[in-house]
Amino acid sequence: MKSPKILLALASTFLGWAWLLSGCAPQAERRPSISLASVLRGPDFADAIEPLEFKSRRDHGPHFEFQTEWWYYTGNLESEAGDRYGYQLTLFRRGMSPGLARRSSWFGSNQIYFAHLALTDASLGEHRAFERFSRGVDGLAGASGDPFQVYLEDWSVVALDSDGSSIRLQAHEQDIALDLRLQAEQPLVAHGPGGLSSKGVDSTDATYYFSFTALQTEGTLTVRGEQLEVQGSSWFDHEWGSSVLPSGAAGWDWFGLQFDDGRELMLYQVRAGQDLLIGGGTLVEQDGRTVWLSAADFEIETLGTWGSRLSDSEYPAGWRIVLPNEDLELELRPLLADQENRLSIVYWEGAVDVLGTVSGRGYVELTGYQASLQPWF
Fold this sequence. Notes:
This protein is mainly β. It is built from 3 helices and 25 strands. It has a single domain (about 5-25, about 60-375), classed as Beta Barrel (AttH-like fold).
């Protein structure tokens, strides 16, 4: 889920990519020079403890005193011919030490940036995913809050205004590309008081979590070399912290849903096997007001499963979600069964249709089904 998606920092990749931080020698001459312990939670990183007064020019940008951060865009798009697409563009930052510092040379850095790009093409029945890594130095990867931008080489998020509510996304890989303009239709949403999102019983098991839950989207997709005009709706999550999974947790399920009546819903649940450890969510009303939800406020039932032959994983495939206090009963159907991101960590992230009390579209993320994430944290 995105609420505790801080764990999607891909810790397993850091051992192989940490050479990026030490300088500018060619990759063939580099060897991982750090231990696993050094890429996990350090004692000097800040904790998300108190509610935050969000300031656009500061908080859309990076928070180097915290260890992990991401800027997460997903969306459902449609071409002029009526073909359906889902997309994901995510940029992550992982600090090796608090603050922003150079290491050993101008090209050295204490920050790793990595990014995921994925596209689901319903007409072709195809899902493709890519990833990149780089050190956080000028020209390779970085982030700023004033002006707001995040980039890794030519994959970029750039604000078109001062408060980050208007955004341009650009990314290109092989014969796939996106160039999209996003405009917020709802105010920025805080998931919890002052954006403080709890991940466990410990007061330090928390992150700061803010979203634009409805972004009108238009622009172009390039699919197998063909450029298409598209429009639709996107969702943006920005989260940062230095927390870890609760003890015994293996992974999570996250749901970001946009209803045709103008409301949005975020839900998450952290799992230990099939057992729920913690959960919560946020319902965003048509006027932007928020209702914070606990795990007791909703029920999620899996309606089927899908097995990946390529990763030997089995995922839920279809859900029934009930929120009795809100008179909502929903059925979620994946746009494609196979929307698995087979990257450094294997997880499922895909577009879904929403039926039931209200209709709509959304995105779902499923982690910890191929292997538990707990050993890394």
